[in-house]
Amino acid sequence: MDTAVHDAAGDFRPRDWAQHPPYLSPDYKSTVLRSPSKPLIPMKQCLSVRTGPVFGHDSLAPLDSDLTKNGRVNGEPVGERIVVTGRVLDENGRPVPHTLLEIWQANACGRYVHRWDQHDAPLDPNFFGAGRCITDAEGRYRFTTIKPGAYPWGNHHNAWRPAHIHFSLFGPSFLTRLVTQMYFPGDPLLPLDPIYNGVPEGARELLISRFSIDVTEPLWALGYEFDIVLRGRQATPMEG
Amino acid sequence: MSQTLKQTPSQTVGPYFAYAWTPELYGRRPLATNRLATRNLAGEHIRIEGVVTDGEGAPIRDCVVEIWQAGADGLHAPGAAGFGRCGTNDEGHYFFDTVKPGVCEPGHAPHIAVTVFARGMLSHAFTRLHFSDEAAANAEDPVLAGVPADRRDTLIARRAELPGGVVYRFDIRLQGEGETVFFDC
């Protein structure tokens, strides 16, 4: 990791709580004991949060962004090959270049490599399910992977997570850090999912990727586009 | 300013992220670890450790703590300690081996920016670690000053000089009695 620091000038726009889920979302049971009960305390942005770590291209290995190759042992991973691509932008519509994305997901059967995952579905010996890449100068990223399967979880009777890919991003600052999930269009499980529904109405749709025939590669993989918007800087510096 | 786009909503990391974020156990190379300080790094070498607990005081094992800090010279710069990431173990315990940061901005006490991610947290939480042996600087710190006096203690890591070295204890309580102060920043 390279710990070089981005330009530290200017405050970032606040977290937009009309877009983000509240900490307490009782239909998602795990939030009940894990949500801060006291209001967040406003903090004037200072250098230690306006800056952030930088992960360089040399931090990555050549296959890190190809999940169909980076877990191979003795053959191809099973499932529907997909390309997931998009842009990382800030709220001002500017690309976020050279920033790290990390993704992780279940295999085509809905099973994670994670040692705690007890779902009675097969592990794929040729699929690890995690990848990384760095956006280019225009903020573009691209992963090749396998479409993840839905899986059951213990939240409530007959609870199934919609197919999803977890995304983790840094952006230019400790404040622009974001972890989110990308979902697939037309998934019938979405309206039933309390994690998806924890996001305010009107904002949820931003988590659904778009199928794209232009990204789809003939004889190879279906294509999905998913753009991600991180916090941007204020138009004028805030005086505290 | 040009037209604004809407922030992409946050989502939980879920329970199954360790193989991606802290993948050493899976035989993979991590991008970031909890050992920020190489032996030759300038500054006082310290360990920061604590337990992350929920509203019932139960340890949280599917949690990740990330930190970002200046080096001993106060600079967020190449070669400084910088960024660290540590998953909690079955007892909810995490630790970082690092150096004590210097003052990175006039008027601010030495501190470390901290974020907490876990299953059951739909957005990560921001907090800030201060040092118990910096009482004078803490008393002047503008961020601590913005925190109700009876809750400031939750932001102070307690120094202990142990046979193995200096350890600062910083427990993180997500909810309830002694709840850690989390910031909107």
Automatic annotation (TrEMBL), chain A:
It holds the Pfam family PCDO_beta_N. Keywords: Dioxygenase, Oxidoreductase, Plasmid. It comes from the Bacteria. InterPro entries: Intradiol_dOase_C, Intradiol_dOase_core, Intradiol_RC_Dioxygenase, PCDO_beta_N, Protocat_dOase_b. Residues 1-20 are annotated as: Disordered. Residues 84-112 form the Intradiol ring-cleavage dioxygenases domain. This is Protocatechuate 3,4-dioxygenase subunit beta.
UniProtKB/TrEMBL annotation, chain B:
Pfam families: Dioxygenase_C. Residues 40-176 form the Intradiol ring-cleavage dioxygenases domain. Keywords: Dioxygenase, Oxidoreductase, Plasmid. SUPFAM superfamilies: Aromatic compound dioxygenase (SSF49482). Gene3D superfamilies: Aromatic compound dioxygenase. One of its GO terms (molecular function) is ferric iron binding. The keyword Oxidoreductase applies. InterPro entries: Intradiol_dOase_C (IPR000627), Intradiol_dOase_core (IPR015889), Intradiol_RC_Dioxygenase (IPR050770), Protocat_dOase_a (IPR012786). Belongs to the intradiol ring-cleavage dioxygenase family. This is Protocatechuate 3,4-dioxygenase subunit alpha. The gene is pcaG.
